[in-house]
Every structure is written in C-alpha cells, then in structure tokens.
Amino acid sequence: MSANKPAKILLLVTVLTIALSGCSGKNKDSSPAGPAEAEKSEPVYGGSVTVGITQDLDGLDPHKAISAGTKEVLFNIFEGLVKFDADGDLNPAAAESYDISDDGMTYTFTLREGVRFHDGSPVTVEDVVYSIKRSAGMLEPKDPAIVTESALLIISDVVATGERTVEIRLKQADTELLPYLTLAIVPKDYAELDTKPIGTGPFKFVSYTPLQSIVLEKNEAYYIEGVPYLDRVTFKISSGTDAAFMELQAGSIDILPYITDAQASHLPKGYHLEAGPMNLIQALFINNKVPPFDNKLVRQALCHAVDRQAVIDMVSGGRGKVIGTNMYPGFKKYYDESLVNVYPYNPEKARELLKEAGYEKGFEFTITVPSNYQPHIDAAQVIVEQLKQVGITAKIRLIEWSSWLSDVYRGRKYETTLVGLAAELSPGRALSRFRSSAQNNFVNYSNPEFDALYSQGETETKEEKKTELYRQMQAMLTNDAVAVFIQDPYQLTAVSDKLGGYTHYPIYVQDMSLVYYKKGMLPD
Hints:
This protein is of the alpha+beta class. The chain has 13 helices and 22 strands. It has 3 domains: 7-29 and 59-64 and 73-182, Dipeptide-binding Protein, domain 1, CATH 3.90.76.10; 203-276 and 491-518, Periplasmic binding protein-like II (D-Maltodextrin-Binding Protein, domain 2, 3-Layer(aba) Sandwich); 280-489, Dipeptide-binding Protein, Domain 3 (Dipeptide-binding Protein, domain 3, Roll), CATH 3.10.105.10. 25% of the residues lie in helices and 23% in strands.
C-alpha cells in the first residue's frame, strides 16, 4: 500500500483496510505539514512564552511516560517515523515515505535525509530499529520501566534493509498499526533520556525542575522549514487549575489549557479564549470487582442516576457531547451514537435496580479524583448531589496525580474514579483496555465473550466485519455498565492576545511549534 496522501486518523482504518486489498506504490507526498497561515496578524520570529500545566511530568524518557499530560509536552521534543498534524493527518516525519505490503504483513520506511538529533548526530536506521524494539519490549535485557505499547506486540522483527530503509515485519496482518509508529525515535543506546532527553522535534530540552517547570529552546536545525517561531518555551507546573489561573491573572502565564467554564467567563484583559473538542472520554470509572460494584445492577443504577447533560451544563456551560460508550465520537464509522440512549436519566429506574440488587436503602462509596483537574472535580461534585436523589451517598477523595497513577491506575485500589481518558490512536486500542488480561484494564472488567470478540477483531481485515465487531464490543461494555460514560468535553484555553497560531489537535498535545508573536507584539 502506498500513502499517496497523508492518512487521516478518523479514516485511517478504512484507508489501510482498502490498501490490503491490493494497491501498492510509494508515498509521493513526502513533505510534512509546515506552519499554518497567519490568521489575523503576520507572525514574527523570536520571543518566549510560558505555558501553564497542572501536573508534574512522570518522566522525560518518552518510552517510559504514562500520563497524557507528560506526552503532550514531550510532543515538542520527540517525533516518530510519522507524525500527526492539526487536521488529524499522519505525515511522514523521520521517514520521507512508507510502503505497506499487499498482505499487510510488512511496513517499509525510507528515512528522510538530513534529519538530526538535537546533539547534531544524524538519525540512522540503527536508531530507528533500536527505538521501535525498545518501545515494543523486544530488547534484551528488558527494562521494566519501559511502557510497552500493546499495539506493538504484533511486531515479529524490525530490520534495517539498507542505509535508509527499515522493515517492520508483523506476526499477523494489522490494519491499525501506523498511528503507533509515531513513537519517539531516540539515539541508540543513549543512556541519559531520563535526565537529558534528545529527540528530533522542533524544540530542544534545556532543563527540568520537578514540580516547577520544564524549559525548551528552538531547534535551529529542525527539518521542517519555517517552524518553530518561538525561541523558548517554558511549561510552568502549578498545583492545580485554580493556582495556574491566579498566575495567568498575574500575567506570568501566556497560555493556559483546560481552564474551567467559570474561569473562561473571567478572563483578564489581554487574553482571549480558544475552544475545541478535547478528544477525551470523561467518565465515572467503576472498579468492577469491588462490592457493591461487582453487581451489574448496581452499576446500571448509577448510570440511570446520573444526568449527563446536567453535568455538562453546570460544569462547562453546555460545551461538550454526551456519550454512552468508551469510543471517541470522532471515530464516526465505529462510534455507536444509539448507545447514548441506553441509560436515560431516570432516578425511579435507578431506585428499582438498587432494590433488585438488595440495596433498597442505598449505600456509601468514594469517588477518587486527581486534585489537579478542576473540571473532573466539578463534575464529581454535581454527581454527588444527583446520587443523593436515589439514596446513594458518595464522598469525593482528592489525591495527587502521582498517587492516582500508583493507587488507581496501576494498583486498582479504589471504588470509583472520575477522570478523562485521552482518545486512543485507533478504534481498536480504545477497546483493548477492557480485555480481561490487559495491564491497563484498571476497571477490572472481565468478560470471556468480550475477549473472544476482541481477538477476532485483531485479525479481521474486512472493514464491514471489523466495524460490526467494534460495535458489538461497545454495546457489551455499555450494557454491562463498566462505567458511567459522561461526555467528550471541550477544551478551553486562555491565550495571550499577543500570540497567534495556538491550535487544537485531535490527539492530546500542546504543539508550540505553530505558536508565534503577532507583528508588533514581540516583547523587547
């Protein structure tokens, strides 16, 4: 298969599946996306900006990072063979072209000439082989700190077949691998990624002070002509959205993503609001193995007891899309809109289900929420009040993000948690976390029938059948009430009026390469 045009994330599976039926050839569009046109003012080069973030990084090594908040920062330092742009297109990055065999078993990449790491060394096929094998857990000895991406387990071997060509050979055909080849290319055997990360991205690492900031500077040798505009970017770490907003009001932050609706209505002079889909699945996730939530009737009662539209109206001024499934709505072909109606707001039905489950008098439980995400805290507070109407008493427990990762995500020591899961790069991966054996199955969902459907979908190359399987799995998760799915929320970002180019992506990133000072606005 050839990529004659950049692959579109929302159509990616369709594109690749059609390709398996027999087309072949080289990718002719080898130029990655450059700077966007200036919208209202001519961009100028230079200057520095401070971006507010509300959680500390969980590492600087891109192959060890877990949290989306870390990955959105590292996006500026590292790139893969291919890279997403603001339209959701997959463009060649470290590679200039790629070719997928007719049977979908071999991906061949030709490296772009002239791409260098931030230390000046050229990117070689050995670096690419090393990076992919490292991310796929194929190196010996294995580093337990590496977060092995399950999508890469399909790889049987990675081989340099020439000075600029690399083959990725698969154990079986996979129609959804390409987005995961955005994984960071790093220097082979480089031992200081944890403290001095080196990538190929538009910005170079300068310094990192835990709980305070990470500082980046312009990569003057970046291979995409015209970007980045800025000389320096500081990601300033605050303890939460309120603290960060206070700094914005004081003028010490230029860009602040993920502000609340209330904050958006009180922007200080000199700032404007940028809004766009967050590409997030916000839900009250339930530990399916902890009583009383090991009873499906109780979980279903929770779903009927939560008025999702009221949550959106009260927390985000009506900005957001009600969902009834784990699937990101942007995957329109696979997203089942009808599942929104499975659990209409119905307190009476919730009380009936609780009675049937043996909890006529209700019960008490805890909602664990990361303390650095005010929108999730606000949503939890609304849900607490709604649950009182059916006799359920919920208490909110705020914990630091690092504790959430260790206790909830890894340790699964919780009853319920209200968070948002960043949209996966492919529809199949959005379902993979619910497999009984999945390491990231933090809701402890276990259903052999679901596992069998997922295994069937992994090897299915006929698009119609794959779509049918995905919809069956979605319906199963919704009917089993694995979580109270709430919304795909909007991201609200406060941006200095001096700046242009801030762009929302269909994935969880903060791309600073497109941000610029408007003409006449560059500070002295």
